[in-house]
Amino acid sequence: MRKLIFIISIVIATGITFSCSKSEDSDPNPAGSTPGPKFLAAKSIITSSCAVSGCHIAPSNTGGVNFGSDANIVSNSSRIKTLAVDLGTMPPSMPLSAADKTKITDWINAGGKLTD
């Protein structure tokens, strides 16, 4: 009987410990979040330079990437920085200006999330 009470006590204590512990939110776009100014600046560039007909927007979704939603932009943040800022290979028609690259870099440095 004592063993059973001991085991039940351990299970309850463990449950309380884990249910009260702080967990990190892994969702970069929590529901109801208001986009931050750095994200909005980067999104404006991406929408006008990348999410255009024949590129990264439905139905073409070049390279399997569609920037038609905020979540897709956020989930591709490191790819955007690498190709558009670091390598300068995107967009292929005309590289981004230094000012646009700075805005994207600022957003990435702030966490590359919807909220910043």
Number of strands: 0
Beta content comes to under 5%
Cα Rg: 22 Å
- Name the helix and strand elements from N-terminus to C-terminus, one letter apiece: HHHHH
- What would you call the structural class? mainly alpha
Global shape: elongated
Distance between the termini: 55 Å
Residues in helices, as a percent range: 40-55%
How would you describe this protein?
The protein has 116 residues and is mainly alpha-helical. It has helices at residues 2-20, 37-49, 70-75, 77-86, 98-109. The longest helix has 19 residues, at 2-20. Mean pLDDT is 83; it is low at 17-26.
List the helices and strands and how they pair.
Blueprint: H1 2-20, H2 37-49, H3 70-75, H4 77-86, H5 98-109
Helix pairs in contact: 2-5, 4-5
Keywords:
about 120 residues, 5 helices, mainly alpha, single chain
Summarize the entry for a quick read.
The chain is mainly α and 116 residues long.
